[in-house]
Here is the input.
Amino acid sequence: MLFIAGTKGVTSTHATGEFYCPHCESNRNYNHQMVHQKATIFFIPVVNLKLLGEYIECQECFNTYKIEVLDINTEENDDEFMQSMYFLGIKRVMTMMMLADGRIDDEEKATIKDIMHKLTKEELSDIELQEEIDFCTDDPSNMETYIKTLFPHLNEQGREMVYKAGYYISIADGDLDDREEKLLQKIAKILQLSSAHCKGIIAEIHGNEA
Here is the structure.
């Protein structure tokens, strides 16, 4: 008898509850999802081998967040809450920029991870990045909506950082595609950054690199 064994990633709901969703800007139900590597026999999962990752999924907008989002209290920790939204906004802008030209390059992924590490002092895992890629692929309009929500809470430095993050990804593969340039223009418009302001930001980036 032929015996077929292997492994596969399986996502399951570990817990449910209510939390404040940064995207919906209100309390929503969530699922605490856990992704385990399972041993399989005849392609049927039989036992957990290790935990690959976990995340919180809003049941209204289906955005996904790190577990720490459950600790955010918007009344007591407004600064922490806005910082979480800010980091997510930057990650979303960079992911959409990576997807703009229709291909995903290792250089772009590495740049996203590097920028997020510098901002948050935490490593962005491959699973977390893939989840963001999947989400942005399913709902491309979400980035624009999210930046519009974030905009009133950003000072000039914050708006510049969001634009810079997008620009860094657009040039990560060495080629600024027309679609990437159009997306940069859309981001600048939402952030109310003039053409001259954007040129100054780009000049600063290349000046620092030089």
